[in-house]
Amino acid sequence: MIKFSVVIPLYNKENEIADTINSVLNQSYKADEIIVVDDGSTDGSMEIVNKNFKDKIKIISQKNQGVSSARNRGIEEARNEYICLLDADDLWELNFLFEIAQLIRLFPKAMLYATAHKFIDEKGQVLKGRISFDLEYQGLIKNFIKNFRRNYGLVNSSSVCIRKSSKVLFPQNEKKGEDICVWLKLGLKGSLAFSAKPLSIYRLDASNRSANIHQEAIVPCPIKWFYKNKKELKKSKNYYSIKKFIYSNIFITVYGGFALTRNYISIDAVIELMKKNKDWFHILLYPAYLMPIGFLDFIKKIRRKLR
């Protein structure tokens, strides 16, 4: 019997948290424990949790320290080796845990496990993430980083199961991309066991899904991680896959995020980091200062459809 601990970090999700927890309780393959880590919510989230689920889950409360701290606290408190993560505004289909258990039985030495995911957009439409695998695919992906770059629907923080023994925690005090850093680190440690069935649901229509920070310089976690560890990463056989992934991440973040929200100080910060590391690629980022918002928004919508 494979036992799962489910960790749900919670901060101000009163409109979604009940559906999220119910999607775990209703699984065809039952979780051994469900841990909700309240990261200092100020809305009615905890009233809903305590009223409806207090006797069915484990509740941990802490002062607001960010989603990475909440995830790490839940991982630390979990009593099982296999830990499934689920954001407080996302959902699982009925057989998500059953499919993960199947993957563990088939590929017991994998470093992480995941199913494909789908999206609910702002209009309530259900969209599938684009992946280059048949719907019935169930297998081991050895070159994870190469496939992660090519398949947007491969892994996210609500579709993955990690091993507690991997001891890879989420970096704290990061404003963007902290989860991607973890997937990259685990991808270097071993393989991904993946099912192409879209059994996780990422809710783009959720309240407080993301906040655009305009007055603070942000360099996404994967970019900082890459340049900080570049010397060691060059020794890896996956170095060029990592480098391509990071360049794609830089381009998408700068043009699809920072430029669109006119967050120029973050563009400055990314360019300065690249210049410091003598990376000529920064030259390609300067047009981001001049591109019209309407054009960038159009490109973003096209990219979402392609995803």
Describe the protein in words.
- The chain is an alpha/beta fold and 307 residues long.
- The chain has 2 domains: 4-203, Alpha-Beta Complex (Spore Coat Polysaccharide Biosynthesis Protein SpsA, Chain A); 221-306, no CATH class.
- The chain is built from 11 helices and 10 strands.
- Strands 1, 2, 3, 4, 5, 6, 7, 8, 9 and 10 form a 10-stranded mixed β-sheet that branches.
- Strand 6 (112-120) and strand 7 (126-128) form a beta hairpin.
- The radius of gyration is 19 Å and the shape is globular.
- The two termini are 36 Å apart.
- The model has no long low-confidence stretch (mean pLDDT 91).
CATH class of the largest domain: Alpha Beta
What amount of the residues lies in strands?
Answer: 15-25%
List the helices and strands in order.
EHEHEHEEHEEEHEHEHHHHH
Low-confidence stretches: none
Q: How far is the N terminus from the C terminus?
A: 36 Å
The strand count comes to 10
- The CATH architecture of the largest domain is Alpha-Beta Complex
Give the biggest beta sheet.
10 strands, mixed
Summarize the amount of helix as a percent range: 25-40%
In short:
The protein is α/β, with parallel strands linked by helices and 307 residues long. Helix content is 38%, strand content 19%.
